[in-house]
Automatic annotation (TrEMBL):
The keyword Calcium does not apply. The chain crosses the membrane at residues 271-293, 305-325. One of its GO terms (cellular component) is plasma membrane. GO terms for molecular function: cobalt ion binding; cobalt ion transmembrane transporter activity; magnesium ion binding; magnesium ion transmembrane transporter activity. Belongs to the CorA metal ion transporter (MIT) (TC 1.A.35) family. The lineage of its organism: Bacteria, Pseudomonadati, Pseudomonadota, Gammaproteobacteria, Pseudomonadales. It is a multi-pass membrane protein. Its main location: membrane. This is Zinc transporter ZntB. Keywords: Cell inner membrane, Cell membrane, Coiled coil, Ion transport, Membrane, Transmembrane, Transmembrane helix, Transport, Zinc. SUPFAM superfamilies: CorA soluble domain-like (SSF143865), Magnesium transport protein CorA, transmembrane region (SSF144083). It is found in: Cell membrane. It comes from the Bacteria.
Amino acid sequence: MHESDNAQWGLVHAFVLNGQGGARSIARQDLQGLALSEHESLWLHWDRSHPQTHTWLRTGSGLSAFACDLLLEENTRPRLLALPEQQLLLFLRGLNLNPGAEPEDMVSVRIFADAQRAISLRLRPLHATEALVEDLLAGRGPKTSAELILRLAHYLTDKIEHLVGELAEQVDDQEERADALESQAPDHSTLLQIRRRAASLRRFLSPQRDIYGQLTASAQAWLVGADSSYWNELNNRLTRYLEELELSRERVNLLLEAENRRMDERMNHTMYRFGIITGIFLPMSFLTGLLGINVGGIPGSESPHGFLLACSLMAVVALVQWLLFRRLRWI
């Protein structure tokens, strides 16, 4: 009931974490004057495109104008910014798994957080937040705002692993197709698409990997604590995915180069055959042209065996050429 009412105000999810893995949903009207106990934390997930989100963020959130401007700016890349009073801004990217969308067209999630509060904004639906809500409703979710951010980053990374593995499998298929003796050539358009998708993923995953590394050594005591090893693990996982993407791009480039060489060899072989055929028929064309001129004195013009003699002469010329080409190892 709360979610349907909250949606009218641009509030997608609103939960108070109970510190034990569960949470209770609250309405937007409950935000004013909401008091949290020591072990509770607040998570608000907003639709960034909704006008009421902008209004609440600037007038009811208590955030500085600087923080609001960054959260609402149009275009952004993954980044981490520490704010005064043990607060931070964290911008991450996740795969776009919405119907009809390209996964590498990544969705941005922008987060303001402190020890007891996490405010996140998205423009398009993000599957990672839905998985997070399921965990909270099942009582196995994050207990603090720091764990909530870590769990969200974990789900974002899991989705990336699946796509990276899918791209690697597509490259494997194209390599098997190229290595098979009787197969067709690799699909050129598929190879170009794989390379483009890998480049698009690297564009956002590389700075996101660096963010995880910064969070490992963050000075925010409430954020890191015992979770620093988990942030380091996410950093290592993204490093591995980036290496896999780079390897996939290199393998695609090698396949494209091999295909270009194969096509060049085919073209050279075809042109070589045309050259041999032209070399064989050029003297014959000269003879037929010479014997076909309309002047007197053409040998055999009066003989009933003239045509047979001309054909025999061209056959002898062709035989001599064939023997010569064989001796020169041209054929």
